[in-house]
UniProtKB/TrEMBL annotation:
It comes from Rhizobium fredii. Residues 13-149 form the DUF1468 domain. The chain crosses the membrane at residues 12-32, 44-66, 78-96, 102-119, 126-144. Signal peptide: none annotated. This is TctB family tripartite tricarboxylate transporter protein. InterPro entries: DUF1468.
Length: 165
């Protein structure tokens, strides 16, 4: 089998998989009974948006596979050191999440990931990570009424300084 034929088969499989997933999500979203709620946006909005994106992408991949319109590009060299550091930071965040909470563990994840990709502005990395995680915490807590972990150590500090959790 030539390289061109194997690429065409791969593109066809990817196109079929993407199209199938999009159609599956669309059909399941359409068949899900509506929930009686006063909200303007129902639970089917985001799956419908995802399906709306997946179906045309799958069709475009199939179109390109059948017309041989794809280009073979060399894959760039992977920076394994950065990949390993980011994976370790992500695993650390999962471990630290319950104790340190979303804001602190997410800030550490962002700062370490930025360092792994070559940033040397450590204070700026921490401040950006802190801002992003604080904003997501506030959006989830106040906007969506969903609680992200505060962290057992953070809760103890809050109580120690006279606050309530």
């Amino acid at each position: 089998m030539s390289k061109s034929a194997s690429l065409r088969i791969g593109e066809t499989i990817l196109g079929l998989a993407t199209l199938s997933l999009g159609l599956f999500i669309a059909i399941e979203t359409w068949m899900t009974p509506p929930i009686a709620a006063q909200a303007v946006i129902g639970p089917g909005l985001f799956p419908a948006l995802i399906a709306t994106g997946l179906v045309p992408v799958g069709l475009q991949l199939l179109y390109e596979a059948f017309l041989h319109r794809f280009q073979v590009e060399e894959f760039p060299e992977l920076d394994w050191k950065a990949v390993i550091i980011v994976a370790a930071a992500f695993a650390s965040q999962l471990v630290l999440l319950e104790r340190l909470g979303w804001v602190i563990s997410g800030t550490l994840l962002f700062a370490v990931s930025a360092i792994a990709f070559g940033s040397r502005a450590h204070v700026r990395n921490v401040l950006i990570g802190l801002a992003l995680t604080a904003i997501t915490y506030l959006v989830f807590h106040y906007g969506l009424d969903l609680d992200l972990p505060t962290g057992s150590y953070v809760e103890e500090l809050i109580i120690m300084f006279g606050g309530s959790v």
